[in-house]
Design a protein that fits this description.
Largest sheet: 5 strands, parallel
Radius of gyration: 33 Å
Order of helices and strands: EEHHHEHEHEHHEHHEHHHHHHHHHHHH
Number of helices: 21
Oligomer: single chain
Structural class: alpha/beta
CATH architecture of the largest domain: 3-Layer(aba) Sandwich
Strand content: 5-15%
Distance between the termini: 69 Å
Number of domains: 4
Mean pLDDT: 85
Length: 483
C-alpha cells in the first residue's frame, strides 16, 4: 500500500477576529492544500514557505510513492472499485462519515487524504493519542468558520479507538449538522472500541491486509521509482515480501534498506534474512487478534485438523501468548469437544499443563503441542457439554422446586414423620443393582439431557444409557414410582 505520513504537522493561527484556524503545514508538494477563500488570510509562518532546499531534501520512499489518486491505491479494490462503497459515494458526489478498519500499512491515512482531495474538502488530521478536548474544540470551531465560508472539512482521526466513550460522543453534533465529515482509522474492532452512537452515524469499511500480489505490485512500483530492480534472487524476493507481513509501509521501508546496499551479485534468501529482521508479528494479547487466533485454534481442534491446530498454536506462542492461558484453553477444548468420547483427553491436557509448569518455555511448549495433536485426532462429542447446558436451562425454568421426599435423608424423627425417605429403594438391593426410581422434583416431567454419540467411548456409554432406560421403563411400569 502507498501511504501518507502517519501524522501531519498542523500550525494553529488566529485571524484578526481571534478565531482559531487550523491549516496543514505538512503536506508534500503532490497534494496542494485547499484552504477556504477568505479575506482574513492567516498570518505567514516561518514553516509555510518552503526554503530553496525543500524540493531537494531527502524524502522516504513511502512518501515519494504516495498515490496521487485513488486509482493508484493498491490492494483495496473491494472499497474503491466502481461498484464498491467508496466508488459509488464518489460517483454520487456524497461522502458520508466513515470508520476505516484494517491492519497497519494498508492505506487508511492515504485513502482519507485522497477522499478529501476528490471531494474538495479541507483535510485536517489529528491523532487520538495526542489530542485532548481543548484541541478538539479548536478543530470544531475552525471547521465551523470554514463551513460559513462555503468550505467543508474532512476530519481524519488516526487511532480513533483511543478516544474514550465521552470523547467519541463529542463528535456527534458536528457530524449531524455537517460541520465535519469524520473519517476515523483504527486497527481495533470498532464493535468493541467505538460506541453505538458513533457507529450509527458512520459506515465501517474494512481494509484488507495486503496479499502477496498487492505487495509484488508495490515492490515493482518501488523499483521503478528507484530506477533499478533490487539485487535479489527470486526466492529472496519472495522472502522480502513475506517479511512485510501484509504491511505495505513495512515493505517500502525494507526495500529502501535493500536498495542502499552495495552488492555485486543478487542476494540469496539466507543472506537477506541475515541482514534484515522480519517484521514483528501482529498480535495483541488483549485485542481482537488474541480472540481470533484462539478461536482458530479451537475450531481446528474441533475440526480434527492437527496441522492447522499446530499452526495456530505456534502463531499464538510466536506472538507472545502466555502458555498457561493456552494450557487452560486446551483443557477446555477437551471437556467441551471431546468429552466422554475419549475420557483420556482430559487427563492428557492436565498432564501437558503440569509438564509445562515443571519445564517452562520453550521445552514445556512441546507438551502443549502434543496435547493439541491428541485432541485433534480424538473422537469428538459435545454431548456432555450440550447436556449440561440443557440441564442448566431446565434448572433455571424450574426455580426452587425441592427434590422428591423419597430421596431425602431423615436423620430426625420429625423429618420421618414428614415423609422424608419414605419409599426409597436402595439400588444395591434391587435386581441388576437398579431400582428405576424417579429422582426429578414432583410434578416435573422427566428430562433427557445427555444424548451420547456413536463415536469413541460414548458408543459404550450409549449402550449403558439405553440399558438403564429400558430397565427404568420396566421397573416403573411394574409398580415403581411413576414419573
Amino acid at each position: 500500500m502507498l501511504f501518507a505520513p502517519d501524522r501531519a504537522g498542523q500550525d494553529l493561527h488566529k485571524d484578526r477576529a481571534g478565531a482559531a484556524r487550523i491549516h496543514d503545514a505538512g503536506r508534500s508538494g503532490r497534494f496542494p492544500t485547499r484552504c477556504a477563500r477568505s479575506s482574513l488570510a492567516p498570518m505567514p509562518d516561518l514553516f509555510d514557505s518552503p526554503g530553496p532546499r525543500a524540493e531537494t531534501a531527502p524524502r522516504p520512499l513511502a512518501d515519494r510513492l504516495r498515490p496521487a489518486t485513488l486509482a493508484e491505491v493498491i490492494g483495496q479494490d473491494h472499497l474503491l472499485g466502481v461498484e464498491a462503497p467508496l466508488g459509488t459515494m464518489l460517483a454520487a458526489g456524497s461522502l458520508s462519515s466513515l470508520v476505516l478498519w484494517g491492519p497497519p500499512g494498508t492505506g487508511k491515512t492515504t485513502i482519507a487524504r485522497l477522499l478529501a482531495h476528490e471531494t474538495d474538502l479541507h483535510f485536517v488530521q489529528i491523532s487520538a493519542i495526542f489530542t485532548g478536548v481543548p484541541e478538539l474544540r479548536k478543530v470544531f470551531e475552525a471547521a465551523k468558520l470554514r463551513r460559513q465560508n462555503g468550505k467543508g472539512t474532512l476530519l481524519f482521526v488516526d487511532e480513533i479507538h483511543r478516544f474514550n466513550k465521552a470523547q467519541q460522543d463529542g463528535f456527534l453534533p458536528h457530524m449531524e449538522d455537517g460541520t465535519i465529515v469524520l473519517v476515523g482509522a483504527t486497527t481495533e474492532n470498532p464493535s468493541f472500541e467505538l460506541n453505538a452512537a458513533l457507529l450509527s452515524r458512520a459506515q465501517v469499511l474494512v481494509l484488507n491486509r495486503l496479499d502477496d500480489a498487492a505487495l509484488e505490485a508495490l515492490l515493482a512500483r518501488a523499483e521503478h521509482e528507484l530506477g533499478a530492480p533490487l539485487k535479489l534472487t527470486p526466492a529472496a524476493r519472495e522472502a522480502l515480501i513475506g517479511m512485510a507481513d501484509g504491511d505495505g509501509r513495512a515493505l517500502l521501508n525494507l526495500v529502501e534498506q535493500v536498495a542502499a546496499w552495495r552488492v555485486a551479485a543478487p542476494l540469496e534468501t539466507s543472506q537477506l534474512t541475515a541482514r534484515l529482521m522480519k517484521r514483528a508479528t501482529q498480535y495483541d494479547k488483549s485485542g481482537e487478534a488474541h480472540y481470533n487466533l484462539i478461536s482458530a485454534l479451537h475450531k481446528s481442534v474441533r475440526g480434527s485438523d492437527p496441522d492447522a491446530a499446530l499452526y495456530w498454536l505456534a502463531r499464538m506462542l510466536k506472538g507472545g501468548e502466555d502458555p498457561r492461558y493456552l494450557a487452560r484453553r486446551i483443557t477446555r477444548m477437551a471437556v467441551e469437544d471431546i468429552g466422554l468420547a475419549d475420557p483420556q483427553a482430559h487427563g492428557i491436557c492436565l498432564g501437558a499443563w503440569e509438564t509445562y509448569e515443571r519445564l517452562g518455555s520453550p521445552e514445556g511448549e512441546l507438551a502443549l503441542a502434543q496435547a493439541v495433536i491428541y485432541l485433534a485426532l480424538a473422537p469428538k462429542s459435545n454431548a456432555g457439554y450440550a447436556g449440561f447446558k440443557s440441564a442448566m436451562a431446565a434448572a433455571a425454568r424450574s426455580g426452587s422446586a425441592p427434590p422428591p421426599k423419597h430421596i431425602l435423608n431423615a436423620p430426625t424423627g420429625l423429618m420421618k414423620e414428614q415423609g422424608y425417605g419414605a419409599g426409597y429403594l436402595y439400588d444395591h438391593d434391587a435386581e441388576d443393582g437398579f431400582s428405576g426410581q424417579d429422582y426429578f422434583p414432583d410434578g416435573m416431567k422427566r428430562g433427557v439431557y445427555y444424548l451420547p454419540v456413536e463415536r469413541g467411548f460414548e458408543r459404550e456409554l450409549k449402550k449403558r444409557l439405553d440399558f438403564f432406560a429400558h430397565l427404568r421403563s420396566k421397573r416403573q411400569s411394574g409398580g415403581g414410582r411413576e414419573s
